[in-house]
Amino acid sequence: MSAIEVISPGPFATIQDLGRPGLAHLGVPRSGAADLVSMTLANRLVGNRESAAVIEATLGGIRIRAMRGLVIAVTGAGAQVRVDDVPVGLGTTVTVAAGSELAVSAPTWGCRNYVAVRGGIDVGEVLGSRSTDTLSGLGPPPLSAGDLLEVGAETGPWPAVTHAPVEATPPTVVELDASAGPRSGHLHRVGDLMVGEWEVSADADRVGVRLVRPDGSDHPLLHHRADVGELASEGVAHGAVQVPPNGQPVLFLADHPVTGGYPVVAVLTAGALARAAQLVAGNRVRFRSR
């Protein structure tokens, strides 16, 4: 018998785990959860291994029905979590009875929530991972209303901690720590990346987030050096900051491609990458040199 029925996936929901590391030389991206910090926290709250597959829900609206008793935790973006229309809290271990419905509202900040179920979401693996890669098409398809999901065996100990602090008020400007990238010398002034604020454009998904200068900003875009030739396309890590010819940096997230010949001028820290995965259009960003 299936354990979960998807009543509504919301705007977009997929199955994610830690991804497919170590296959980039074959042209296979890592993929996996966009916000690994929130995903692994959700698994710890239900006693799973950090690698267990979860549901990644984008912009809320997901509703699922428990077909049997389940232990569930929801983490990530600032959303309200309800069981049978009763608030149960974000970042909290919750027992959901058979027939009950869990719902996640649209976030008040951030964009991605992670729904972990004790035992892990049990779908078929592709190249060692259950993750949906939206760029390559590997892994299970995005969730749809009516989907039935299995849950794996409960093998881990009961979680020692069943509640995690939740950030109630996000910062007005999200600070992203970054170190110099391998092609920073291809910019006319690489320091311009660290000067002033950037704004998240509407061009954002699991592949990447494009940044622009806010209206009225007197800080420059980023310019390539005229005396440096074109680059061959290269593989890059999650969190790479790439600058195309228009001077608007792109933050590479979980489903990113190779560079396409544009320079990677900085790389986000792991913590900054998790924060970048929660950015939505209109958010302000400032880089800090690490």
From TrEMBL:
Keyword DNA-binding among record annotations: no
Domain Carboxyltransferase: 25-290
The keyword ATP-binding appears for this protein: yes
Protein known as: Putative allophanate hydrolase, subunit 2
Organism the protein comes from: Gordonia polyisoprenivorans (strain DSM 44266 / VH2)
InterPro entries: CT_A_B, Cyclophilin-like_dom_sf, PxpC
Alphabetized NCBIfam families for the sequence: urea_amlyse_rel
Lineage summary: Bacteria, Bacillati, Actinomycetota, Actinomycetes, Mycobacteriales
SMART domains: AHS2 (SM00797)
Gene3D superfamilies membership: Cyclophilin-like
Sorted UniProt keywords: ATP-binding, Hydrolase, Nucleotide-binding
GO molecular function terms noted in the UniProt entry: ATP binding; hydrolase activity
